[in-house]
Each structure stands twice: as structure tokens, then as C-alpha cells.
Amino acid sequence: MEDRVNAKMFWAYMLVGLLLVLISLGFGRLSYGVVMPFMQEGLRLSYAQAGFLGTITSLGYLATVLLAGWLAARWGNKQTVVLGCSLLVLSMFGLSSSNGYGVAMVAMFGAGVGSGMVFTPALSLMVGWFPERRGLAAGFLMSGTGLAMVLSGLIVPAVSTGVADGWRWVWRGFAAAALLVFLLAVWLLRNPPSAASAAARSGGLSISEQVYRNPGVLRVAGMYFSFGIAYLVPSTFQMSYMLAQQIASTTAGMLTAMGGVLSLASSPVWGWVSDRIGRQRTLVAAFATVMVALLIPVLYPKLLGFFLSQLLSGSTIAAIPALIQASASEQVPPVLVPVALGYVTIFFSVGQLVGPGLGGWFIDHVMGFPSAYLFTILMLSLGLALAYGMRAPARAHEETRPLASRTDELHR
């Protein structure tokens, strides 16, 4: 009976976590690449301006993510998540009403702030409840990005081309979805009851020693930085690249959706594998796969090339943040997990801050879309090198109590 209750709790939390990532990293960030061509036309933006809107979202994420970890450690993961959801709702409604570049910049910044307040605390909450399954849990959460790309690839081109100012209706739909997830999180989620006791046990720990100067955390942070530069470039410009190669918008949208469908299953699978063979081996394989995937459309920018690229990248790229976040959570005591996740995510955010803008600059001034993709591959190679040298962490910080005992605390 306890096993069934524990399993029910695990899957209920995984569902809410997936939806939180759907509205934050998915609708709030990655789906912008699908909306961008239509929003760019509606607001009459250059590629550099459109790319900078992606960058300004990353700036909001960067400005918030360490604060989010600090708030989650002291105020509670759930409370921080709820605040972030409310900011996402407001920002998405703002985007649907924007009538110029300035308003869009403010709203995109707000979306970045909201995303930062949601993602890291949500993952910390799941790790707090299910530490022995952190790779699988992180993988399920990151499936939310794949679901966002599926929905965006299927819905955004149809709505944007079939309705006047369709891209505005897309943002309104995203805002409505964020509001529903906000209500679900308020109703269902609870903070891990172990957090208070862990805080008491770790009263003598130095955050600087345990997190900011921890060699294991710093290696993970460097890996996340290089991946952050690369992460948003293909998702931001892939749709435009395919359209520039005379691929129909509906076909391009279907290819984007295909990548999202694959990531729905691949993220949990990669996470499950990493729980068994180790984070280091899994990360090396994942980085190498994405590099090959992005090289294909550079060498063969035809429909088949984009199909093969989406097949490989869709099966892999969404899992890498989950693997990196799981690695970071293993480097510190349980009470410091939100701080460590926030800290390494700053490096990820700095990478994302410069990535889309650099990608747009390469497209405008170097040799078009292929140069942006080659730059992305170079950044991924740096992440692969750091992953190759990573050692398995000590297990001293692992929470060893069974889930049943933590569940019992919740109902006392």
C-alpha cells in the first residue's frame, strides 16, 4: 500500500513539474524561436533585434536565478515557484499586447525573471522529495521543454498564419496555460519536510566553501556555461533557417514538433541511464550526439538534413540541462541544493545571454545560418571536454531516508 501511495505521489509531482517547465523554459523561453518569425514580421524587427529579444529574456533569467535559489532555501521552493508563475502570466499577457520593440523588451525580460523563479526551485523541490531518483526526476521535468516544442510546432504556425495578428493570440494562449499551472501548483505542491531538519544540521556550513568554491560545482558551472551559449541558438533560429531554405512553414513546424516529441521520452530515458551508469559517461555521449546533429544541416541544408538533425537533437538536447542540474545537486548537502542549482544556472544564463545575440550577429554579418551553427558546435565541444574530465562525486551528501518516511512527515 505504501509503495502505491509513494508511486502516486511521485507521478503527481512529476506531472506538475513537467507543466512548470512547460510554461517557464518552454513557453516562456524556447517557444520564442517558433513565434519569432511571425512576431518579427508583425513588429518589423531585424534579425539582430529579434535575437536580442531572446537575449533580454536570458538577462531576466540571469538577474533572478541566484536570488531564486536563495529564496527557495530560506522562504521555500513552493513559494518561489508560485511567485514565478504569476510573473510569467503577466509577462505573456504583456507580450500579446505589445505594440513596439520597447514594450516587447520589458515583457520578455519579465518572462525571463518568471522562468528563473520557477525552474530551479521546482527542480530543487523534486530532488528534495526524490533524491534517489534525481536523474529520472530531472529528466521528466525537462520533458516539459519537449512538450512545449510539440505544441509550438503544431499550433504556432497555424495560428500565426490563419488569424490576423495570430502571434498575439499565441502569447495569450501561453498566458492562459501559465495561469492554470499556477493554480495547480498552489493546490498540489508541498515543500519537502526534510528541508527544515537539514537546515538545522548544516548550520555550521560555509556556503562559499560548499558551493561557490567547490571544485565539483565549478566544473559543472563551466560545462553549463558552454552549453548555455549553444542552447538557444538552434531553437531560436532553426525555424528561420528552414524557411530560408524554402521549406514550407507547416513542414518546418512539423519537424520542430517531431524534435519535441522525441525529447518528451528522451529526457527521462537519459536521466534514468545516468542514475545507473553515472552522469559523466551520459553527459559525454549526449554532448557528442548534439554536435553531430547540428553539423548535419550545415553540410546538407535540405529537408532530409533538417529531419536527421531534429531526429538526433530532439533525442538528446533537452536532456543535457537535466543531467547537468542532477550533477550539480550531487555536489552539496541537501539544504544547499537550491543555492548550488541557482549558482550553476547563473553560468548557464550568462551563456544564454550572449548566445542568441551572437547567433543573430553571425547570421547577419558572417556567412548566414551555417556560421551560427558552427559556432554552436564549438561551444558544445568545450562542454564535452569538461564532461570528459568530470569525476563521480562522493555520496556523503545523499539523502538516505526512504520516501515513505518523508511522505509520513508531510501528513503529520
From TrEMBL:
Domain Major facilitator superfamily (MFS) profile: 12-395
InterPro entries to which the protein is assigned, alphabetical: MFS_4, MFS_dom, MFS_trans_sf
GO terms under cellular component: plasma membrane
Chief subcellular location: membrane
Transmembrane portions of the chain: 12-32, 52-73, 80-97, 103-129, 136-157, 169-189, 216-234, 246-270, 282-300, 306-324, 336-355, 367-388
Alphabetic keyword roster: Membrane, Transmembrane, Transmembrane helix, Transport
Superkingdom classification of source: Bacteria
Localization terms from the record: Cell membrane
Coiled coil: none
GO molecular function terms noted in the UniProt entry: transmembrane transporter activity
Lipid bilayer topology: Multi-pass membrane protein
Transmembrane among keywords: yes
Cross-referenced Pfam families: MFS_4
UniProt xrefs under PANTHER family: PTHR23537, SUGAR TRANSPORTER (PTHR23537:SF1)
Protein name: Major facilitator superfamily (MFS) profile domain-containing protein
